[in-house]
Amino acid sequence: MGEDNLKKATFGAGCFWGVEAAFRKVDGVLSTMVGYEGGELENPSYEEVCSGTTGHAEVVEIVYDPKKVTYKELLDVFLGYT
Question: Structural domain boundaries of the chain?
Answer without folding.
Answer: 22-62
